[in-house]
Write a structure and sequence with these properties.
The structure is a single chain. The chain is an alpha+beta fold. The protein has one domain (about 40-155): Glutaredoxin (3-Layer(aba) Sandwich). It is built from six helices and four strands. The radius of gyration is 21 Å and the shape is elongated.
């Protein structure tokens, strides 16, 4: 092997190592930021099966947030919408709240069952007239609040 080829291999290997390190540092930073945004919502997540059981007993719908802790869009949803006092009050009073981490096994099952492919995604289980309802994604608390109010209003109709 010539000196020129060895030098190219070393350069390529070094570049790959640096890119690998940058990627993992970015994931760590994004994860820390996501954990902070999630904590700031103050929402307490229930276990999905428990929420579904309680929903079947009470008729109160389940709101599932499918999210990834490292995802900037998910962090934006938590910071702008889920932390909003009116949205949070609506969720706490009218829904059983479940947050699923996109990469967890339970989230994989959820995605398959409800045909969800991306995140963040908000899904209402036991929605009026439907076994589930995917809410339109918005980073506007007013729009999400309107969607949640619509679910509740439909639930109250005979």
């Amino acid at each position: 092997m010539g000196a020129s080829l060895k030098k190219r291999i070393i350069t390529i290997t070094g570049t790959l190592v640096v890119l690998y390190a940058i990627y993992h540092i970015n994931v760590l930073v994004q994860t820390k930021l996501g954990e902070k945004a999630l904590a700031e919502t103050g929402l307490v997540s229930m276990n999905l099966e428990t929420a579904k059981l309680r929903s079947s007993e009470t008729g109160k719908p389940v709101l599932v947030e499918l999210s990834a802790i490292w995802c900037p869009s998910c962090r934006k949803l938590n910071k702008k919408v889920m932390s909003n006092q009116d949205v949070k009050a609506m969720i706490q009073n009218e829904f059983y709240f479940v947050r699923l981490e996109y990469e967890d096994d339970l989230a994989h099952q959820f995605r398959d069952t409800y045909q969800v492919s991306g995140f963040p995604t908000l899904v209402v289980l036991n929605a009026p007239k439907d076994p589930f309802l995917r809410l339109p994604l918005s980073y506007s608390p007013i729009e999400i609040l309107a969607s949640l109010q619509q679910v509740i209003a439909q639930k109250e109709r005979p």
